[in-house]
Input
Amino acid sequence: MNPCVYPLLGLLLCGATLGLAQDERPFQIDGNFGGTAGIDEMLLQSSERYYSASAPTEDFYVIDLLPALPSARPSGSIHGLKARGGFKVDIDWKDGALLSAVVHSVAGSQTRVRYGLATKEIHLQPGQSVRVMAVHGGIEVGPV
Output
């Protein structure tokens, strides 16, 4: 992660207001919610599209886990992040590395999950979930 990003995020969070009655400055909805969106993007990204020969008219998205984890947050977890394509993701990490992630299909059918240089394609029905674990420089996908 760019070392300049984390201090800028701190300035944003320290300057964000808690609500209309909390500060004399105007409430800046784009700043407050934009800051949380920035944090989400450090932990999960899903904007990269790919296409599948089995469904040439559909767009599918890569779920990128911990693409820009701040060094100041080496361990933690986040639950309920939404990913494009109809997926919800829970992520746990320790010492700057992925422990596991659970990918839940809300309405999605196919996606690729990437962590670092490793990528796996998964196929799910709505309501199904899989666990993704980092192992030996790669990732494994298994049942929850």
Observations:
- The two ends are 30 Å apart (CA to CA).
- The longest helix spans residues 29-43.
- The first strand starts at residue 44 and ends at 45.
